[in-house]
Design a protein that fits this description.
Chain lengths: ~180, ~280
């Protein structure tokens, strides 16, 4: 991946503390995971008196983007680390490959099947799948691979709806992108 | 620079980033590069508006959710592009979306055609979504290499979204085109109604040429081969025939729109026009 791991900066105590605070800022639409679990916080930098938090949006039209930015700024300010300024970095584009292993486990525990890898798709960007591809999505409840997709789109832009044939439970799948 | 895209003379011409707070109708003479980006942004926006009309009306719940999800992505892409243009012209995304008049929108005519009124139906919505998302997919792929870093970044995100837009639409085209007698009949009618508007998607003009020369993005003619590579196999699978090329040329991308555009804008803009400057 071309993405630089966001944590690998020579950090001041304030920046380190800010990352800890951000680990508790939850996604309003998937409140099982934090903004750092999702990998959307790309950088935290001291800028003069303030603290700049660099965020990469998930989907172009994600209605939670503004809410997340406000929540991040409020959390930093409330922790006394502010004044916070949240900026957007569009490139490289966010991918579900940036969701951390802990984030994936939290999604599964919450009942959402985590996304598979899409790194291969990104590198072969001129070979576009033009038809729906069946992916193996394991049931987050019983672990069975015997699942079927009910709807390509779901309650939020990032999820689709599945059903487990083994345990009969419906569940959501976080789509790889 | 000669411009063929702005059919009427304009008055106000805010050149650089002085932010306007106006709540009145805005007009400005875009540079070819701005017009190029507004064509894409406006096409995303108006296509999204038409898709969103299916909210609560699609044949099945899953598709209701799907079409509005696609619309959401398109609105996001439009916001990014209009915001980018707005930084250069002094208007924000909302001013550009809600305070421009019909002649100052540069979306392709195909995007503004009714999707579920005036004798059109779900087949029209599906076919248009397929033809446009395939075009967008080819465009975004090329714009990933735009000389404008912001445009390249927007494209890097949008191209991923366009992939599942195409996949979803293609799935439906085959399902309906190769479906029942009735669904096949309706899909064929939709193709006949929409195909004449595809010519505009590939007709290079002065705006495209200027954009290409400045490294912003491709001319429209350069998108045809990639588009056909997506469209033709799906048509073949769906048992649909590609109509012969005709002489008709739509002109939305030059600001000259169909009779449907004014009604669409009236609905889309009514809140800002009725309550100037209103915010959520």
């Amino acid at each position: 991946m071309s993405a630089v791991a966001p944590h690998e900066h020579a950090s001041t105590a304030r920046v380190t503390r800010a990352w800890e605070v951000l680990r508790c800022v939850l996604d309003p639409e998937v409140p099982a995971v934090s903004v750092t679990d999702l990998g959307i916080v790309r950088d935290v930098v001291e800028r003069g008196d303030g603290l700049e938090v660099v965020v990469t949006p998930t989907y172009s039209g994600c209605p939670a983007t503004e809410v997340i930015e406000q929540a991040i700024a409020a959390a930093i300010d409330d922790a006394g680390l502010g004044p916070a300024r949240v900026t957007q970095r569009r490139a490289p584009a966010w991918t579900t490959d940036w969701i951390t292993p802990e984030g994936r486990e939290k999604l599964r525990a919450y009942g959402i099947a985590p996304p598979g890898s899409c790194a291969s798709e990104a590198t072969a960007s001129n070979v576009q799948p033009i038809r729906l591809i069946a992916r193996d999505v394991a049931c987050p409840r019983c672990g069975s691979a015997q699942t079927e997709r009910l709807s390509a789109f779901g309650s939020t832009a990032c999820k689709s709806l599945y059903r487990c044939i083994a345990c009969r439970e419906p569940f959501e799948h976080f789509k790889p992108i | 620079m000669t411009t063929t895209f702005a059919p009427l003379p304009t008055s106000a011409s805010p050149s650089a980033a002085t932010a306007s707070t106006t709540t009145e109708s805005i007009r400005f003479m875009p540079t070819p590069q701005q017009a190029y980006l507004m064509r894409i942004g406006d096409s995303c926006l108006i296509h999204a508006q038409r898709l969103a009309e299916w909210s609560g009306h699609a044949p099945i719940l899953e598709e209701d959710i799907a079409l509005t999800n696609l619309a959401l992505d398109l609105v996001g892409q439009a916001r990014a592009l209009l915001t980018h243009v707005g930084r250069q012209t002094g208007f924000d995304e909302d001013q550009l979306a809600f305070l421009r008049g019909e002649r100052d929108f540069f979306n392709f005519t195909m995007t503004e055609l009714p999707g579920r009124r005036a004798g059109r139906d779900f087949a029209d919505a599906i076919m248009r979504n397929f033809l446009l998302s395939a075009w967008m997919n080819v465009l975004w792929t090329k714009l990933e290499r735009s000389g404008d870093a912001e445009v390249a970044a927007i494209a890097g995100k949008a191209v991923k979204e366009s992939r599942y837009h195409v996949a979803h639409a293609a799935d439906w085209v085959v399902r309906l085109g190769d479906g029942s007698e009735e669904s096949t009949r309706r899909m064929r009618q939709a193709v006949d109604r929409l195909w004449p508007y595809t010519a505009e998607l590939f007709e290079t003009d002065a705006v495209d040429t200027a954009a290409a020369e400045s490294g912003l993005g491709p001319v429209r003619a350069a998108l045809r081969v990639g588009w056909q590579a997506i469209v033709e196999p799906v048509f073949a699978d769906a048992g649909l025939t590609i109509p012969a090329a005709g002489a008709f040329r739509s002109t939305g991308s030059r600001g000259l729109h169909s009779e449907h555009m004014g009604y669409l804008l009236a609905e889309m803009q009514t809140l800002q026009r009725s309550f100037p400057g209103g915010q959520w």
